[in-house]
Amino acid sequence: MNMASQQTLLQPEGRVLSTLESDGSRRWLYPRLSTGRYWQARRIVAYALIAIFTLLPYISINGKPAVLLDVLHRRFTLFGYTFLPTDTALLAVFMLMTLLGIFAITAVLGRAWCGWACPQTVYMEYLFRPIERLVLGRAGVGGKPKDIPGWRAFIVFVLSLLACLYLAHTFLAYFVGVAQLRIWVTQSPFEHPAAFMVMAVVTGLMVFDFLYFREQTCIIACPYGRLQSVLLDKSSLIVSYDTNRGEPRGKIHKSLPVVEKQGDCIDCDMCVQVCPTGIDIRAGLQVECISCTQCADACDAVMDKIGRPRGLVRYTSQAALAGERTRIIRPRVVIYAVMVLGLMTFLGILLATKSPADVTLLRQTGSPFLVRPTGQVENIIVVKIANRMDQTQEYTIALVDQPKLSLEATDRVVRLAPGQLFQEPVHVLAPRAVFDDGEYAITVRVTTPDGHKVDRPFRMLGPLGVPAAAGKGQP
Ligand code: SF4
Ligand code: SF4
């Protein structure tokens, strides 16, 4: 770009993005810590969540892990219930219900998830930043660190790497179970190179995220963050600056006449210095705001110092700031709640009436029937049984109320592991006399020892009219 064209470009009035310098390079953020009441409450929640995240893979419910997302075998265990590959509909309803529940919570509480419970925020603010502040001696200090000895930075890296290793191992325990993880950890990487590679990649991604990418995950990478922003409305809870009270902002001048009295904001910039996404809450609701409440804590501390009431930056709603009533019960909240309740009921019905097996009958390809030398007509039916229960199950294949018919199968009683599929041909023999117009309706029943039955109708084919000679028949 030549000088002339550079001069014609308009310079932005302020920073275009909170993490972008005017020359296009990344603006690194070093937020100051404000240990106010919200931070204290969030810390309790954060450490409780870290404890739950760490312990959950070790907890068993009904003899199963509380959470095990076994992607390899397509079996998801959630709080004692195992979703099998045959439970796609159940899992879809469960996921939809969870999603709508999140929509409802977001509509009422805004981005509470981001600020209080998201693993990115929890680990960044209550594990990785504390490590840095402790080792670099920067508790309560913001801004770019200067003259940090290399050995301190190295210790930060080593401790962060150890934290990422812990996180990666715990994370993988959710997918492979603690027993498998224990084997991997105690054996040489050469005995399970693929697992070792997975572990190394996950650890590497976490190092990248928590040591380099940081707030960019929330600002540009997280789709849920974007989604939440469009789920808010005027009555949703947000962290906001009270313009009516704060403006006109300015440094404290006690000598100002009453008529010129300034607002409560003393333009100290503390709310900006503590913000982990680098924004100024006074500019209004922004997509980068993760509702972490650090600006509210920082401003409360300032208000305490200057003897003004707390809450210049606080949890509120756009409606409240505009002098309107904040309505918790509103159409979108009611619609979400009704949909969640409807799906919960539907899921309950699906679970209560869940069949112990998926049974499918298929006609064997080739000849539709065979007339045996004995005169009996034979149809070959391919029986498919998928175990939908989360324990090994025994299934018996039989015909319903057909004393004159017989069923020949290699396995009339089959034993299937959870999710396992059985597929075998069975031979059904019927006297020729039962065929009316070349067809005869039967029912194949699959039963379990505890009395569950799955009935499937089948239309047997046989010869038309005049007795056929032994051999292959015609449809
Ligand atoms: S911390 Fe409060 S007083 Fe200071 S600049 Fe921010 S809003 Fe104004
Ligand atoms: S503006 Fe306030 S609540 Fe939003 S991310 Fe920044 S510090 Fe957190």
Written overview of the protein:
This protein is α+β, with helices and mostly antiparallel strands. It folds into 3 domains: 37-230, no CATH class; 234-321, no CATH class; 357-472, Immunoglobulin-like. The protein is 40% helix and 18% strand. The protein is built from 15 helices and 17 strands. Strands 8, 9, 10, 12, 14 and 17 form a 6-stranded antiparallel beta sheet that branches. A 4-stranded antiparallel beta sheet has the order 13-11-15-16, with no helix packed on it. Strands 3-4-5 form a 3-stranded antiparallel beta sheet. Helix 6 crosses helix 7 and helix 6 packs across helix 8. The longest helix is centred in the middle third of the chain and has 27 residues, at 150-176. It is elongated. One iron/sulfur cluster (SF4) binds at residues 241, 246, 249, 265-271, 282, 298-299, 302, 312-313. Residues 239, 274-277, 279, 281, 289-295 line the site of one iron/sulfur cluster.
